[in-house]
Design goal:
This protein has 13 helices and 13 strands.
């Protein structure tokens, strides 16, 4: 088993999400879903099972001292030595002012994931997936991504000394290409529909470790990745004074983030540290919303047309079983969010000092569809990524103003300063 015995993880196996009685060895990571429940039209993901009965599992919450997510190692898959870039321990910000501007009256908190090393929640996932690549002896990693995932994978691959290939879209924001190349990644802009077949070919030909989805229909993804997202639940629990929120609202593409957070709260309950779990709500672009479609149709996964959306990071056209499971088990729902509501939320957040990419503001944009009178307790909304991710230069630079009162007075007036 290619694991450093000093790592301290309580991970013991991979487990089917469709049938928890079916388990597989922890190594190698099975990146194409549950072998016993695969078909050409539907694949089910795996999760990592842990020995939660071990004293170290509960003790982790007493030992954690607000360090990076690596401080939760007992409850994570094995982490490679030296991989830690400081992901995690992000701030939980009072969001009641933001909520009041949207007519949302419950106590609102904003978990600001843009404070991670590459400015998004994906750093939690890649702390685990790149560790899996290192501990598996991989030559490199490959990821299909329109932005956040690729940037994070490239950073952690650089940290680990691995080669990294990122398959992205030619229409990705220009700043993202420089972001990826700065970490030494090979960036391949290809048509969106070609990204996943090419990724499978790279895995086969080069033996690179895949960090994103390999399955052709339903999304399965890397089994170790969502385990990193559990640490958001652990941190929220600690930051709220060992209290579980009544609801958690999450921007969703493939819903790995939503599932990981829900699993973290479920483990808190299983450990006897919490007596409840929150309702989970998925915020999806209304023009696509495959998770909403799956729940409406009563199926385990759904595909939808690729209608245009500006929320690039969550513009998924296919859902996966993880999100459906988390929403069903928690009693939550998917909330389709219009482009206008996302833009409104993005502007309100920026005026509150929190600049998010449009996708990162989707959860806040969904709050006008969430009846706060039916929620008995605090609500946590996840902010996933910095506004820098949406673009880079979008127009001509402004002309220099004359350095006199007469020269600047007009601009001050236009900007409402006078």
């Amino acid at each position: 088993m290619p694991v450093d015995p000093e790592v301290g993880s309580l991970a013991k196996s991979q487990r089917s999400l469709l049938d928890a009685s079916i388990t597989y060895p922890l190594w190698p990571p099975l990146t194409e879903g549950d072998p016993q429940h695969s078909s050409p039209t539907m694949q089910y993901p795996l999760e990592v099972a842990f020995d939660l009965g071990h004293p170290a599992a509960k003790r982790a919450f007493d030992d954690y001292q607000g360090r990076s997510m690596a401080g939760w190692q007992a409850l994570l898959p094995p982490l490679a030595p030296g991989i830690d870039l400081g992901a995690g321990n992000t701030p939980l910000v009072d969001g009641r002012k933001v909520g009041s501007l949207l007519g949302f009256q419950a106590d609102l908190y904003l978990k600001n994931e843009s404070q991670n090393p590459t400015w998004s929640h994906k750093d939690r996932l890649n702390t685990c997936t790149v560790s899996a690549a290192v501990l598996s002896g991989a030559r490199g990693v490959v990821v299909a991504s329109s932005g956040n995932h690729g940037a994070s994978a490239a950073a952690f691959a650089a940290r680990a000394g691995l080669r990294c290939i990122v398959l992205t879209s030619a229409g990705a924001p220009p700043a993202m290409f420089e972001f990826l190349r700065a970490y030494g990644a090979c960036v391949l802009p290809v048509p969106t529909t070609a990204r996943w077949p090419l990724m499978r070919e790279i895995v086969s030909r080069l033996q690179f470790h895949p960090l994103s989805n390999l399955t052709p229909s339903a999304h399965t993804g890397h089994p170790f990745g969502p385990e990193g997202y559990k640490t958001i639940a652990y941190e929220c629990f600690q930051q709220l004074g060992r209290q579980v929120p009544a609801a958690v609202v999450v921007p969703c593409g493939y819903a790995e983030l939503l599932f990981g957070i829900w699993k973290g709260f479920s483990e808190l309950a299983e450990l006897g540290l919490a007596d409840s779990t929150p309702k989970m709500f998925a915020a999806e672009p209304a023009v696509r919303a495959p998770l909403f479609r799956a729940l409406t149709d009563g199926v385990d996964a759904a595909q939808v047309p690729a209608r245009p959306t500006s929320a690039l990071s969550i513009g998924a056209t296919v859902s996966g079983y993880r999100g459906v499971l988390a929403l069903r088990m928690s009693g939550g729902a998917s909330i389709p969010v219009t482009e206008d509501h996302m833009h409104e939320a993005q502007a309100i957040l920026a005026r509150a000092g929190l600049w998010q990419e449009l996708s990162g503001a989707a959860g806040v944009g969904s709050l006008n569809s969430l009846d706060s009178s039916q929620i008995n307790g605090p609500v946590v909304c996840i902010l996933t990524s910095s506004g820098f991710k949406d673009g880079g230069p979008s127009g001509a630079l402004p002309d220099e103003l004359p350095p006199t009162w007469a020269g600047i007075e007009g601009q001050l007036q236009r900007d409402g300063m006078l």
